[in-house]
Structure formats: C-alpha cells, structure tokens
Amino acid sequence: MADRLGIGIIGTGTIAQQHLIGLRDSAVGHAVAVFDVLPDRAQATAREFGIPYVAASIPDLLGRKEVDAVIVCTPPFAHRDPTI
Fold it and tell me: What pLDDT, in 10s, does the model give residues 57-78?
C-alpha cells in the first residue's frame, strides 16, 4: 500500500516490539526504518519485522525521505533527546 505512512522506530526494546506487531497489519502505517543505541538489537529487530533500513543515528533515521512519522520507544528516562 503506497499510501501508508512510513514509520521510523527509535528504540527496539519491549514496547517497540508491541508497536511493530501492531504495525504488521496496519492499513495506516508500516515500519520503514529503525534505530537503537545497540546496533545488533536494531539489526535483529529489522530482520524479524522486515524493516528495510537500520539507521546509524537518530539524524540518519529522521533524514530518510520515506519516514513520515516516528514512534519513540526508548525507556521513559531516555525519551527527552529523541523527542526534541
């Protein structure tokens, strides 16, 4: 579906997994990029959910033309920086 929003995921822990499960069948959006401070975890999540791009940084993820919106899935203490 070309008209679905491209979603970037920041953080790949437990809450991200739940969002990604929800996005699998969404008619509104699909995950197009992921970033985590733990690159191996980001790679594993991308493989598991078929996400085509693993970003090297938050600016890298935000600079992708296919990213229309972002879900910040970091732990609460780490929400501030990615959100700003």
Answer: 999 999 999 999 999 999 888 8
CATH of the domain at 60: 3.40.50.720
Note down the domain range covering 72. 5-83
Residues in the chain: 84
Domains of the chain: total: 1
If 0-12 CB within 10 Å is exposed, 13-18 middle and 19+ buried, where does residue 58 land?
middle
pLDDT for residue 2: 58
Q: Is the pTM of this model over 0.70?
A: yes
Find the distance separating the first CA and the last CA of the chain, reported in whole Å: 30
Bridge-based pairing state of the strands 5-10 and 29-35: parallel
